[in-house]
Amino acid sequence: MRLTFMVACVVSLVIAFVTSIPAVTVLVTGMAWSADIGSVTYVADSFSAFMVLVINTGSVLAALYGVRYLADDPDGRSLTESILHGTSFVALHAAMIGVVISSDLYSLFYFWEAMSISSFLLVLFDARQTKARTAAIRYILQMHIGAVGILVAIGFVSSAMGGVTYSLVHDYAASHQTWIVLLPLAVAFAMKAGLFPLHSWLPDTHAAAPSHVSGLMSGVMIKLGAYGLIRFGLLTDPSTELGTVLLVIGIATALFGIVNAIGQRDLKKLLAYSSVENMGLIVMSVGMAFIARGIDAPYIEIAAWSGVVLHILHHMLIKAVLFQSAGNILHGTHTRDLNNLGGLIHTMPGTVNLLLLGGLGISALPGSSGFVSEFPMYISGIKTMMMSSTSISMLGVFSVVTLCLAGGFAIIAFTKAIGIGALGTARTKAPLTAHDPHWTTRFPQWLAFGGALFIAVAPGMFIRALSGVLYGLSEKHIPHDLLTTLDTVGIGQAVLIIVVGIVWLLRMLATRTKPVAEGPTWGCGFQEGDARIQYTATTYADSTIEIMSPVTDVSVSYRHIDPADMFPRTRSYHTEEKDLIANKVFDPLAIGVERVLRALAVLQSGNMRSYILYAFVFIVVVVVLTLAEVL
Amino acid sequence: METIFIILFVLTLLYIGMADRLSTLVRILGVQGILLFATAFVALDKVDALNLSFILIETILVKGLLIPAMLRRTLQRNGIVRETEHTVTQFQSLLVVTVIIVLSFILANSIHQPHLRIGYFTASISAVFVGLFIVMTRMKIITHMIGYLILENGIFLLSLAVGNEMPLAVNTAILLDLLTSVLLLAFLVDKVGETFQTVNVHDLNELND
Amino acid sequence: MIALVVILVVALFFIGIVNRTKSLLGGRVGPGLFQHVHDVVRLFRKGAVISTTSSIVFRLAPTISFVAILMACTLIPFGTQPALLPFQYDVVAFAYLLALSRFVMILAALDTGSPFEGMGANREGIYGMLVEPAFFVVFGSLAILTGHTSFTELFSTLHVGSGGVSILISVLAVYVILQIAMIESSRLPIDDPKTHLELTMIHEVMILDHSGFDLGLIMVSSSMKFALFGLLLANFHLTPSAPLWLLLIIAFGVNIVFAMTVGAIESFRARNRMKRNPQFILTLTSVAVLIYFSVLILTNKLVL
Amino acid sequence: MITIHHLPLAVRLDEIPVVSVEEAFACINQYLRVGQSRHVFHMVALPHTDGHRVITVLADDHTHSVSLTSCIVRTGNPVPSLTPSNAQMHIFERDLWERYGLEFTDHPWCKPVRFPVDSFHRKGIDDYPFFRLEGGESHEVGVGPIHAGVIEPGHFRFQCTGEDVVHLEIKLGYQHRDVEGELERARTLQRRSVLAESIAGDTTIGHAWAHAMAIEVLTEQQCDPITEHERVIALELERMAIHVGDLGALSLDVAWQLGSSYFGALRTPLINFFQLWCGNRFGKGLIRPGRNRFPLDEERRKAMRLMLAQFEKKFTLLANEMFSLPSVVARFEGTGVVTHDQVAAIGAVGMSARMSGLGRDIRRSHPHGSYRALDHVSVIEHGGDVLARAAVRRREVDASMRRIRIVLNELSEMSGSDAPTVPSTFTPNTLAISAVEAWRGEVVHVAVTDQDGQIQAYRIKDPSMHNWFALALAVRNNEISDFPICNKSFDLSYCGHDL
C-alpha cells in the first residue's frame, strides 16, 4: 500500500514540478502560456497559472500526508485497490490542472468528468463501509447532473457559433441571452463548489473520504467550481445583476454552511460544512467584484479580487492542516464523533497543536492568514456601503454583516471542534489510548501552516507577487493605499505574535518563583467528578441551533418526561443532524420521482401489443401536433 | 424633524417585535398614536382648523388615549399580563420585524414616484407588515386586535406618504380609520369582555376547592 | 499614545466607580475606588492552583487575551491625536481582536472540563457572535457619514453636534455602543458579575479555575476593555478646537459618567432571562440598521 | 384507624389499632383517595419484637382531624410500596428503608434520604444512583455541596440538553446531625428545648413551639392565653422576617441590587425586635414548654407597634416597586412552574402548596393555641411560578402584620397568671403529635414515650421533607440559569431535612 502510494506521490511531485515552472513564468512575466496538443489549444493566463500553483501545492501536501497516512492503514488492501487509489490520485491532480488550462468547452468537459470520476474513486477507498459507498454514489450522480450542464452549454454554443472555444463563448454571450449559456454552466460549477442549495453532496463525501483526499477535495477541488464561475463570469462581461446573484448565493452559502457546521458532531463533517462556508465567502466576494465592475468602482473590485485570491490560498493551506489533523485523530481514536473524544491534548499533543493553530486560522482571527484574506473582503464591503447608490450600499451592508456573522459562528464552530474534541477530559476510552502518529504525518501540516503564517505576516508581498493575477481578473492596477493597508495589517499581525511572546516570557519570569499547586477542576466540592460533567458536542451547539432552527435540521429522539411522572425511569437522548436541503428537498424529491416511475411501470406490461399501441399513439400525437404547427 | 418621528415610529415597531408583555404592547400603541399626530402635524403643510381637529381627535384621542385605555381595562379586568402562546420564538420574531423593515426600505427605494415620500412609505409598509405578522403569529384574540391596530397606523402613515397634495384622501382614510376603531372598541367591550368574564367565573369556581 | 495612557488610567478607576455607584445607591459605603487595583496587585504576587485536567491552552489564554485587548487599545485615537497604530479599516481589526480574546478564553474554559465553564463558554460564543453585526453596521454608517474608515480619521471629523451629525444619530449610536460595551464586558442586563452563581453567569464563570497571575491578567484585560469602550464613547465628545487639558477633562468626565451609568443601570433593573439575551442583542443590530437608514437620509442619498 | 379532632394530641399507643400490612396500606390508600384535602403527616417506625411497628399519621384539612393506623412489618420481609399510588409517600418509605432496612418491593425511587454514607446499606456517596440521560449526548451539571453563596451544603444534579434542564435530582444529607437521636437521649427539658430550637436555624420559633406543645400534651399542661398570644406574635414575626429576607435574596438572584439592599435592610428591624424581646435575634430561648421566658410587656408592645408602623411604610413602597418593575416581573413570571396537580401529588405543604392554589395551612386546618379563635384566612396564589411564590411572601407579610396588630391589641386587655411547672416525666406509652404552621409550612413533631414515661422516639418532620421535591419539579424543562431563583423562591432547609 505504502509503496504504491509513494509512487503516486512521486508522480504527483513530478507533475507539480513540471507544471509549476511555466506557471511561475506566466506569473512573473505576465505573458500567457499556450500550447497546442493535437488540435486542441491549452492556454494558461495568469489566473490559470495561479490556480495551477494552488492545485500543485494542495496535491503535494495531500500526497505527502497520504504516504504516511496510508502506511498506518489498519485495513489490508489488495494490490488492485492500492494501485487504483494511487492512479486515481494522480489522475485527479492531472485532471484539475487540465480543467484550469482548458480553453474550450469540450476539453473542459473531459477534464471535468475525469476530475469527478477520479475523485469518486478516491472517495470509494473505504467502500467496505456502506456510508462511504452511499456518499460516493450520491456524489458521482450529482456531479453527472452538473456535467450535463456543461453539455447543454456546449450544445447551445456549438450550434450557434460552430465551435466551443472560450472566445466563441464570449461572442455567443455578447450576441445572445447571456443566461442561456451561463446558467447550465453555473449549475455545474455551483454543484462542484458546494454552493447552497447544491451543497448536499459535500459534507457526506468529505466525511467518507480518507483524510488526505478530503483535504485535497476541500482545499483544492471545490475551488475549481469557483474558478469556473469566475472564468465564465468574466467571459460574459459581468454585470451588476450577475454580481448581485452571486453575492446573494454566496451569502446564503456562507451562513448556511457555518450554522450547519456548528450543528455537526462529526469532526470531518464540521470541517466540510466550514468549507461550504468558505466557498460562500469566496463566491460572495466574486459577486462583489462583478458588482464593482458593473458600477465602475476599481478600488472595490481590486479589494474584492484580492480577497478572493488570498482566501483561496489561505483556505487551501489551512484546510489541509485541519483535515490532516482530523485524519490523525481518526487514526488514533478510530472515531470522528466529537461526543466520544475529549482530552486529546494530553495524549496527542502534536496533532492538537496543529488543530488549534488551524482553528485560529479558519476562524479568521488576528494573527492568522484568515484575517488577512477576509480583510480585503471587509474593505470591499465597507467601501460598497459608502457608495452613493442606496441599493448598492445595502448590498455592502449585507456582505459586511455576513462576514462578521460568519466570523462569529466560526468561533462557535471551532471552539466546539477543538474545545469539545481535544480539550477537557476524555468522554470515552478511545482518546485515552490514542497517541500521535509518526512525525512525518505532521510534516506536510507544518509546511502548510508555515505557508499560511507567511501569508499572515506578509499579505502585501503576496498581493504584489500576484498583481498579474489581479490585473488579469480586473484589468486594473492595485491602488497603492490598498497595498499599504495590507502591509500595515501584516506588520500588525507580526507585532501581535511578537507581543504575545514577550508577555508570555514576562509572565513566566513573574511566576517563576511562585508556587503552583495542582488539583482537580472545581466541581463544587463534589467528590465524584466524571466526564459526564462536561458539555458535549450536541449540547454545546444547542443554543445556537435553537435560534437558528429555520436553517438547520436536527431531529431529537427523546421521550419527554411527563409532568405527572414523578419518578422517571432512565431514558436516553439522541439527536441526528441532517442536511436541511438533502433531507427536506432532495430526498422527498427522489422519493417522489421514484413513486412516479413506479406508477409509470404499470404501463410496462411486457405485452408486445401494448407497446405497439403506445408507439401508434405517439405517432398520432406527433402528426397531430405537426399539423397544428406546434412543433 | 420628520425624520426623527419616522425613526421613532420604526423603533416602536422593533419594540413590538420584542415585547412579550401585553401591557407593553398597549403602551406602545399609545405612543404610536401620539407619534402619528406629531408626524401628521409636521407633514401636512396646509392644514385648516377642521382638518387639524379631525387629526387631533383621531390620533391623540382615539389612537393615543382611548384605545389603549380600553385595552388596558380589558387586560386588567381579566388579569392577563403575558403573551405566552407564540408560534415563533421572540428572537425569530424580532428578526422577522427587522427583515420586514429592511425589505420595506428596499421596496420603497425601488418605487420611483415623485409623489412618494420614501421615509413615510417605509414606515407605513413596515407597520402594515408587522401588524400582519403579529396577527399571524400570536394566538390571543387581544393580540390580534393589537396587530390590526398597528396595521391601521400603517395605513394612516401610508395616506401621509402619498397625501401631501391630497388632503381629501387623508381625511377619507382617517374617517375609515375612525370607523374601524369604533367598531373594534365596541367589539372589545362586548365580545372580549364577555368571553373573559365567563373565564373569570370559571376561575372562581376553581378557587373554591 | 495619549489614548493608551488615558485608557490605562481609566482602567485603574473604572470598576471602582461602578462599584461605588452601586454601593451608594444600595445605601452602603462600599469598597474604595482602587480596590480593584489592589486586588490585581495581590493576584500578581500570588502563586496559582492549576487544574490537572487543563493544558497549555489554559495557561496561555489569559496572555493572548490580554495582548489582543492591548492591541485593540493601540487602534483608538484621542480626539485628533492619532492612534498608535492607525490604518485604513482598523475598525475590522478592532472587532476581530476582541473576537480573538473571546476565542482563546472560550478554549481555556473548555480546557478545564468543567460544566460551569462550558456553560459560560457557550453563552459567550453566541452573544459575542450576535453583537458583531451591530458594531459593524454602526461603524459602517459612521464611515458613510464621514467618508473615513479608520478610527483616527473618523473621530477627527466626527463629534456630537458637529456639522451634519444629527442628535438622533448620535444618541442612537451612543446607545448601541454603550450596550455593546456592556455585553462585551459581561455586565447587566446580559450578565451579572455580582451574584456569583455559577449557573447564571457568563464571563465570571469562564474564569472560575484561573488563579494567581493569570487571573490578574484577566482582570486587567476586562477593565481595559471597559476603558476602551469608554474612550470610544469619549471620542464622540472631543472637539478638535479645545486645548488638550480640556480634552483630557472631557475624556475622563465621559468615562466617569459612563461608569456611573453602568452602576445605575445595575442598581435599578434586573438581569434578563438567559433565553431572552439573543433577542436583546439582536435589537442592537436592528437599531444599528435604523442608524444606517438615518445616515443614508442625512447624506442625501435618499430623499424623504 | 383512630381519628382524633384536636391538635396537639396525645394518644395511648395501645389505642392505635394494629392491623396487617395489607390492611393498613389499603386503609391509607383509601384515606388518601378522597383528594387534596388529605395528606400524610408522618410515618413513624418503632422497634417491635420481630420487626417494626409502623405508625402512619394522616391529616384531613376539611374535618380538622388526624387519623392514625399502624401495622407490624417484619424484618427481612419485603412489603409493597405505597409510592406508586401516592407519590407523597416516597420520602417516608425511603426514610424507613434507610433507617431500618425495611424493604419495599416496588418503590420506584428507593434512594438514600439523608445519610452521606447510607447507614443501613453502607453505600458510599459515589454510588448515589442519579437519574441519567443515556446516549452520551446530553451533559450533567453538578452543583454543590459547596455553593457560590453562603448557604448550606446539598448536591444538585442536573441532566441538561444545552441550557435546558431535563431533570433535576437533589441529593442531601451533608448536614445530618442526628437531632432526633439527641432529643431522645436528652434528659433535661432545657437541653430538649435548646435542641428543638436548633433543628432549623430559620424556623426557631416554629420548631420550638411544636416541641413545647408536644411536651405540654405529654405532661397534660395547659398554657395560659397570654403565652399562646405571645407565641403567635413570635411565629408571625419570624414569618415576616424570613419572607422579607427571601424577597431580598430573590432580588439579588435576578441582580436587582436595589431590592436586595433594601429588603435586606428591612429585615433588620424585625429580627432586632427579637433581640429586644428575648436577647437573641432569631428568637432562641424564648419558648419553653408551658411558658415563655420573656414577657412581651407594655413597653415592648409599644416598641413593636412603632417598629411595625415604620416597617409597613417602607415595605409597601419597595414591594410595590418590585412587583411593578418589568425587568423583575419578567424574570419571575412563568419561571419554575409547579402545577396544582404536581403539588397535590407530592404532598407539598405550606407556602409551597399555597403558591399553586392548594390551601394547605395548619393555622386553618388544624389550629392550635390562639389560632383557634383567630379565624385564619390563608394567602393563596395560583400561578405556581416564582412570581406566585414571591407574591405569597409579600401578601403573607401583610397578613402577618395585621394579625400581630390584632393580637397585640388583645394582649393589652389580658392579665396574666402564673406559669405552670412542667414535670420531667411524661405520660407513659403515649404518642404525642403537634403541628405548627411555620413560615415554610407545617412542622410536625411526634414524640413517643415508653412505659417508664421516658421519650423512646422523637420524630420531626420539617416542611422541607416534602417540598424539596417541588423544587426538583419546578426546574424540569426550565433554563438552568433560572435554577438559583427557583431555589431561592422555595428557600428550603437543608438541615431541617437532614436532621
Number of helices of chain A: 25
Biggest interface goes to: A-C, 77 and 81 residues
Note the total helix count of chain D.
17
- What is the overall silhouette of chain D? globular
Please report which band the strand proportion of chain D falls in: under 5%, 5-15%, 15-25%, 25-35%, 35-45% or over 45%.
Answer: 15-25%
- β-strand percent of chain A reads under 5%
Number of strands of chain D: 15
Q: Low-confidence spans of chain A: pLDDT under 50, at least 5 residues?
A: none
Mean pLDDT of chain A: 88
User: How does the major sheet of chain D shape up?
Assistant: 5 strands, mixed
Number of strands of chain A: 6
Fraction of residues in helix of chain D: 40-55%
Helix and strand composition category of chain A: mainly alpha
Q: What shape does the CA trace of chain A take? A: globular
Mean pLDDT of chain D: 87
Distance between the termini of chain D: 29 Å
Largest sheet of chain A: 2 strands, antiparallel
From the N-terminal CA to the C-terminal CA of chain A, the straight-line distance is: 59 Å
Overview of this structure, please?
The complex is a heterotetramer of chains A (631), B (209), C (304) and D (499). Chain B is 83% helix and 0% strand. Chain B has 209 residues and is mainly alpha-helical. The longest helix of chain B has 42 residues. With 304 residues, chain C is mainly α. Helix content of chain C is 68%, strand content 1%. In chain C, α1 packs across α9, α1 runs parallel beside α10 and α7 packs antiparallel against α11. The relative contact order of chain C is 0.17. Chain D has 499 residues and is α+β, with helices and mostly antiparallel strands. Chain D has 17 helices and 15 strands. In chain D, β4 and β5 form a beta hairpin. Chains in contact: A-B, A-C, A-D, B-C, B-D, C-D. Chains A and D meet through α23 and β5 of A and β7, β8, β9, β10 and α10 of D.
Keywords for this entry:
heterotetramer, A: 631 residues, mainly alpha, two-stranded antiparallel sheet, 25 helices, 6 strands, 4% strand, B: 209 residues, 0% strand, globular
Describe the structure concisely.
With 304 residues, chain C is an all-alpha fold.
What is the element layout, followed by pairings?
The complex is a heterotetramer of chains A (631), B (209), C (304) and D (499).
Chain A: H1 2-29, E1 33-37, E2 40-44, H2 46-71, H3 79-101, H4 105-123, H5 130-161, H6 166-175, H7 178-193, H8 201-208, H9 211-221, H10 223-235, H11 240-263, H12 267-295, H13 298-333, H14 344-347, H15 349-362, H16 369-385, H17 390-421, H18 430-433, H19 439-457, H20 459-465, H21 467-474, H22 480-511, E3 516-519, H23 537-547, E4 553-557, E5 571-572, E6 574-578, H24 580-600, H25 608-627
Antiparallel strand pairs in A: 1-2, 4-6
Helix pairs in contact in A: 1-2, 1-3, 2-3, 2-9, 2-13, 2-19, 2-21, 3-4, 4-5, 4-9, 5-7, 5-8, 6-7, 7-10, 8-9, 8-12, 9-13, 10-12, 11-12, 11-17, 11-23, 12-13, 12-16, 12-17, 13-15, 13-16, 13-19, 13-21, 15-17, 15-19, 16-17, 16-19, 20-22
Chain C: H1 2-25, H2 35-45, E1 48-51, H3 56-73, H4 90-111, H5 115-146, H6 151-157, H7 167-184, H8 203-206, H9 212-235, H10 244-268, H11 277-298
Chain D: E1 2-4, E2 9-12, E3 18-19, H1 21-33, E4 38-48, E5 51-60, E6 65-74, H2 90-100, E7 133-134, E8 139-143, E9 155-161, E10 164-171, H3 179-185, H4 189-197, H5 204-218, H6 225-253, H7 257-278, E11 287-288, E12 291-292, H8 298-324, H9 326-332, H10 340-345, H11 351-354, H12 362-365, H13 371-374, H14 386-412, E13 430-437, E14 442-449, E15 455-461, H15 464-475, H16 483-490, H17 494-498
Parallel strand pairs in D: 3-6
Antiparallel strand pairs in D: 1-6, 2-13, 4-5, 5-6, 8-9, 9-10, 11-12, 13-14, 14-15
Helix pairs in contact in D: 4-5, 5-6, 6-7, 6-14, 6-16, 7-8, 8-14, 15-16
